[in-house]
C-alpha cells in the first residue's frame, strides 16, 4: 500500500515595488497561480526589509529602483539579517549597472518585468531548491560578460578582514571612500546605492566610532590602516 503524497506547501512570497499598479498587478497575477502564496507587499526597500523581519517569507520579489532604500541595498540587508529568505529581482532593467550589483548583494534570481507568471513561479522554485532563477536574457548577458575575458578589475574599496569598532563591511567601505575624498553623491554612484543610504551608513559609522565630522573620519581611516598615505 503506497503512502499518500505529502502536499507541497506553496512558497511564501513578499512583493516589493514602488509603483502601486505594478505591485498590485504582480500580487494579483501570482494569486492565480499554484505554488505561490503572497503574504505581503512593500512600496520600498525599507518596508521590504521590515516585512521580511515580521513575516519571514521564503522569497522576496524585489524591484531595484525604489525610494528611501533601493533594491540592491534592501537585498544586501535581507541576506545579511535574514539569510533564510531568498531574493529574486523583478525589474525593468537588465543592464550591467543593475544586474551585477544585485547579484553581488545576494540576489539568487533575476527577471525582467516582461516575464510571465509561470516564469516567476519557476524562478521562485529554483532559488528555493538552491539553484539560480535567471531569465534567459540575463543568462545570455552573464555568458557574454564571462566570454569577454576582460582582465579582473582591482577592488574598488580595500576593506580589512575585520572592520574596526563594530563597523559593518559596507560602513567600512563608505569610510574608506570618505578618506579618498569622495562626496556623498560620488559614494552613492560608486556603490550603486541612494544618497539617503549613504547618509545612513555615515550616521551609523560616526555613532559607532564617536567621530564628529569628515575630517575626523579621514584621520581615523589612516590611523586604523584602512587607507595608506599617497607615495612620495
From TrEMBL:
<dbReference type="InterPro" id="IPR011006">
    <property type="entry name" value="CheY-like_superfamily"/>
</dbReference>
<dbReference type="GO" id="GO:0000160">
    <property type="term" value="P:phosphorelay signal transduction system"/>
</dbReference>
<keyword id="KW-0805">Transcription regulation</keyword>
<keyword id="KW-0238">DNA-binding</keyword>
<dbReference type="InterPro" id="IPR001789">
    <property type="entry name" value="Sig_transdc_resp-reg_receiver"/>
</dbReference>
<protein>
    <submittedName>
        <fullName>DNA-binding NarL/FixJ family response regulator</fullName>
    </submittedName>
</protein>
<dbReference type="GO" id="GO:0003677">
    <property type="term" value="F:DNA binding"/>
</dbReference>
<keyword id="KW-0804">Transcription</keyword>
<dbReference type="Pfam" id="PF00196">
    <property type="entry name" value="GerE"/>
</dbReference>
<feature type="domain" description="HTH luxR-type">
    <location>
        <begin position="160"/>
        <end position="225"/>
    </location>
</feature>
<dbReference type="InterPro" id="IPR058245">
    <property type="entry name" value="NreC/VraR/RcsB-like_REC"/>
</dbReference>
<dbReference type="Pfam" id="PF00072">
    <property type="entry name" value="Response_reg"/>
</dbReference>
<dbReference type="InterPro" id="IPR000792">
    <property type="entry name" value="Tscrpt_reg_LuxR_C"/>
</dbReference>
<feature type="modified residue" description="4-aspartylphosphate">
    <location>
        <position position="63"/>
    </location>
</feature>
<feature type="domain" description="Response regulatory">
    <location>
        <begin position="12"/>
        <end position="128"/>
    </location>
</feature>
<dbReference type="InterPro" id="IPR039420">
    <property type="entry name" value="WalR-like"/>
</dbReference>
<keyword id="KW-0597">Phosphoprotein</keyword>
<dbReference type="GO" id="GO:0006355">
    <property type="term" value="P:regulation of DNA-templated transcription"/>
</dbReference>
